[in-house]
Amino acid sequence: MTIGISTYMVYLAISIALTIWVARTLHKNGRVFLVDVFHGNEALADSVNHLLVVGFYLINFGYVSLALKLGYVINNAQEGIEALSVKIGMVLIVLGGMHFFNLFVFSRMRRRSTARGHHPPVGPDTFTTVQQEA
Amino acid sequence: MFALTVLYDPQCGLCHRAHEWLAEQSKLVELTFVPCASEEARKRFPQLNHDLTKQDLTVIGDHGAVYFGPKAWLMVLWALTRYRDWSYRLATPELLPTTKRVVSAISQNRYQIGRVAGLSSR
């Protein structure tokens, strides 16, 4: 196996492992949020959680796959490690971005569901009598 | 508060369009539309100053709380599922003066806006 091919293999192994780890973390810890957002409806929370994780996998594996091509020839182990570090760094940043985006989605959903105040936004100008309909 | 009565101006195209739009929105609070200063409005609210309701949008809660002008608009927003958050946002001390200015400007020019936009009152 050439250095180039082994670099690709290591890149794929690390990227896939990282993606799976982040997705599982999200899946495990996001559930509590979603159960709260959906007012204890666990079936719905699990379903949305699962759909979010599938989207997360698709985007990340899509990125990992698109970013695989190096575009130049690797001659020695040093170049291989440098190329690998750039690629893994990019994957980590994309994963981080996706992770924060997911957190943002969760917190937004949660805020939406809890910010439903029951008090009117403004006080009345005056009061009048209401004739009840017969 | 479980229901709001909206006294709107039946002669204004803009109000008519707004009424149609509101009818389609999902609501957290029931909205009843009654033309302002109409016989039905006078019957429902015998002690209200009905001449005042011709000047600007008026909203009345089912316990008789009267909201006039910009406050009435905010109450209508508050009644809508999608815009309740916005009603609080627009009612914050920082935004309320602007909200009032914009709403008053639209309200005072509602006939002109309706005409320019080609909205019919019928």
Describe the protein in words.
- Chain A has 3 helices and 1 strand; from the N terminus they run H-H-H-E.
- With 134 residues, chain A is an all-alpha fold.
- In chain A, helix 1 runs antiparallel to helix 2.
- The mean pLDDT of chain A is 84.
- Chain B is α+β, with helices and mostly antiparallel strands.
- Chain B has helices at 13-24, 39-44, 50-55, 70-79, 84-90, 96-108, 110-116, and strands spanning 3-8, 30-35, 58-61, 65-68.
- Chain B has a 4-stranded mixed sheet, with helices on one face.
- In chain B, strand 1 (3-8), helix 1 (13-24) and strand 2 form a beta-alpha-beta unit.
- The N and C termini of chain B lie far apart (31 Å).
- At the A-B interface, strand 1 of A face strand 4, helix 4 and helix 5 of B.
Overview features:
heterodimer, A: 134 residues, mainly alpha, B: 122 residues, alpha+beta, 4-stranded mixed β-sheet, 4 strands
Short description:
The complex is a heterodimer of chains A (134) and B (122). With 134 residues, chain A is mainly alpha-helical.
Helix and strand string of chain B, N-terminal first? EHEHHEEHHHH
Spatial extent as radius of gyration of chain B: 14 Å
**Helix-and-strand structural type of chain B:** alpha+beta
Largest sheet, strands/sense/barrel of chain A: none
Overall average residue pLDDT of chain A: 84
Q: How is the quaternary structure best described?
A: heterodimer
What is the total tally of β strands of chain A?
1
- Give the N-to-C terminal Cα separation of chain A: 90 Å
Distance between the termini of chain B: 31 Å
How many strands, which pairing sense, and closed or not: the largest β-sheet of chain B? 4 strands, mixed
Q: Cα-atom Rg of chain A, whole angstroms? A: 25 Å
Topology:
The complex is a heterodimer of chains A (134) and B (122).
Chain A: H1 3-37, H2 42-66, H3 77-114, E1 126-127
Helix pairs in contact in A: 1-2, 1-3, 2-3
Chain B: E1 3-8, H1 13-24, E2 30-35, H2 39-44, H3 50-55, E3 58-61, E4 65-68, H4 70-79, H5 84-90, H6 96-108, H7 110-116
Parallel strand pairs in B: 1-2
Antiparallel strand pairs in B: 1-3, 3-4
